[in-house]
User: What shape does this take?
Amino acid sequence: MKMAIDTSGKHTTTPAENRLVLSHLYVAFGALFVGTTFGLLQTLARANLMQPPPWFDYYRMLTAHGVLLALVFTTFFITGLATFSVYKTIARERRPLNVGWIAWIVMLAGTLMAAFEILTGGASVLYTFYAPLKASPWFYIGATLLIVGTWIVFLDILLNLKAFRKDNPGTAIPLPAFMAAATFVMWFLATLGVAVEMLLLIPWAFGWTSGIDVLLTRMLFWYFGHPLVYFWILGAYIIWYAVVPALLKVPVFSDALTRLAFVLFLVLSLPIGLHHEFVDPGIAARWKLLQTFLTLMVVVPSLMTAFAIFATFEESAAAKGQRGFVNIVRSLPWSDPVFAGIVLAMILFIFGGFGGIVNASYAMDILVHNTMWIVGHFHVTVGGPVALTFLAVSYLLVPALTGRKLWSRSLALVQVWLWFVGMSIMSIAMHTQGLLGAPRRSADIAYAGAAVAAQWHPWALVTAAGGVVILTSVVAFAINLFATIFAGEEGETPFVFAVARADEPPAPKWVGNLGMWTVVAVLLVVVAYGGAFYDHFREHVYLIPGLRTW
Amino acid sequence: MNIHRAETIFIRVGAATMLAFFAILVYLAVADRFVPPSHQQTIDPATVTSTAPFDHPGLVRTGPNSYDAYYVARAFSWSPQSLTIPLGSTVTFYVTSLDVVHGFTIPDEDVNVEVMPGWVSTVKHTFLKPGKLLLLCNQYCGIDHSTMYASVTVK
Assistant: This one.
């Protein structure tokens, strides 16, 4: 078997490889179309502009929205992107694709199983499925299969890295493949938590066990649930670090620091899930404070990322002889929907970061916990930087993989701006509702005319207006996507990953040692969670039978 | 590994800000006792309604200007449905659930805690403003979740 290191970033994947990657992306887009439609309906329902029919109630819709967007859209897009990043930068002749296809089939089967249960009312438990709300066992089994499928994607990545190492001993893994691998090491460690949770939930849902340890399932869920958000953002970071410089025709700002940022995210994503449980009983405050500190440490790789992005912009402007903030901003290719979409996504993330500091701040969380503020926060994080980056890069990725030219560049440009404007309006309105005390996860926020609730309705209307703009954006994306696939002019669209500058010395070995970082990550998890779990297992915990309250 | 001098400064300032921020949180937690509700007390949900003090949920005076309030949550109601609190008093709420997870919150005041079957949640608050307050469930608990609210009157 022959293999080559692609130092140009220009190696192209084969049509068979492209079909596998596209299959992941198409499931992601399908989930996006259905999930965002439900999202709009929810904003209309909360603003009292429509009522969901009794045969398809608000919470069924909310569960579908959360699962389809937070779990299915993001996961399938990232598995597709990671597979592409590995296949494109580790060139192999006759690469076996069977592992990749098995992964996709398992993920899809799990998704369809869980989706069927949600849509037919067997699992109105929202995407957090907090026990003792008891869904159909097939919902938990479907979700488990989706996760097991992602483990097979991880296996495929590892097999490709192994083949690369064998033929290129002593050579660093190409940067995009490294970023994909680091992301999936983190994801694998994180999903072990939810897998253990499923081992408790599935027998209980079948009635084979009489009760469930509610707090334990929540700790396991959030041990997974916070790294989940870093899984989303690392998907976007692969694009920010390796595609944005290519769009600007400059090298990667620093190959070594990019790798370092990714391993820091790997390590710092995992030991922080308790910050979702600041107001849970049963967990001592000292463990919450410890994880607050670990949560805030993510500032280091985040600032490294911000620095690299601004340095890349500056370098691109300098190549055109432009200096100074205004000139740098003006020199950027704003007419390119891929670039514009990604930069707008980055701007949204600044606000996501601000809100995140509030949420992570231990006792301050009590002001915003379970309010619409949190919903505003994750719409300006996963719905902003992550989703908008994915949509924008799709204008490059789908044409590159299908061999069809993008149908309309101008519609694409309008689409990314609509998303940015819609998400800004909706998120500001959601944050404001939260500060005024409006609860999340409520079908009706009138509360029989209570004085405090009266302040929420106007902002619910603004939220709905934002929702309308976002769905318009999704429709524009769908039209462009279908037109490109079915009616696009045939032709090559080059997709280039940026590479390190020629004179950059290779990163120190320890930076790229994923095995070592895995050990560090596990040790940190033990430090962060050891006390809380030790406390928990010393308690006499009552097992809860659970019920279906919908 | 070459790190640009400007980046070194940038990261150091960021890390220092983070440490200062954390120091403030620790100071508030230690000196001011500003901690999130983290009560560690279990309770058998099957016998809550027959065990004192949860068999008679409501307000209990514990001293001049200080009270304990016992609440029981079940899908989809609070017990007691209404409560009157003397203005200026400090109330420690003890809340538990009979069935699924609920959220105990008074949006006008900073009272906000998750309520789980098998556990007692506590949150302490001083009521300085008179008025009729809304107490609601802010954790999804089932189909009629949004009808799960009660009233608290401060006077």
About this structure: Strands of chain A lie at 3-5, 90-92. The longest strand of chain A covers residues 3-5.
